[in-house]
Write a structure and sequence with these properties.
Number of strands: 5
Number of domains: 2
Strand content: 15-25%
Number of helices: 2
Amino acid sequence: MSNVIDIAAFQQARIASREERATNFRRCVEMARPQARRGAFEPQVVEPEPEPVDEPNEPAALRWRLSQRGNPYVVTDGFHVVVFRRQSAGQWSFRIENLETEQAWFAERHYGDEEEARAQALLAVRQLQGTVRAS
C-alpha cells in the first residue's frame, strides 16, 4: 500500500486557503467601515498582523542536521526522519521512525533529488500522525 501525496497540490491548497482568509477579512473590514463612520463601532479599524510565511513543519522552517554518516535528518512531532542517497540507484529515499513506539517505515519510491525526498518525507509524517492519533 503506497500513499502518495502531491506536494504541489498541497501547497496550492494552502495558498488558496490563505488567500481566501485574506479576502474574507478585507470584506468584513469593508462592511464594518460604514458602521464605524456612524459611530456604532470604534472609528479605528485594526489591520491584521501578517501571517507567518512558514509553518513549523515546512521543510524551510525545520532545522535539518547531518548524521554521522552524512545524511540529513530532523526530529519533528515525535518522528525521526532521515533522508539518504541510494547507492545502487543514485536516487534519494527516506526513513521515518516513531520515537515513541520505535516503529520504522522506509519510502517505497525513490526521488530525483534531496529536496523532493525531504518534502515527501514530511508529508508522510503528517499522514502517519493521523494514523497514530486514530489508533
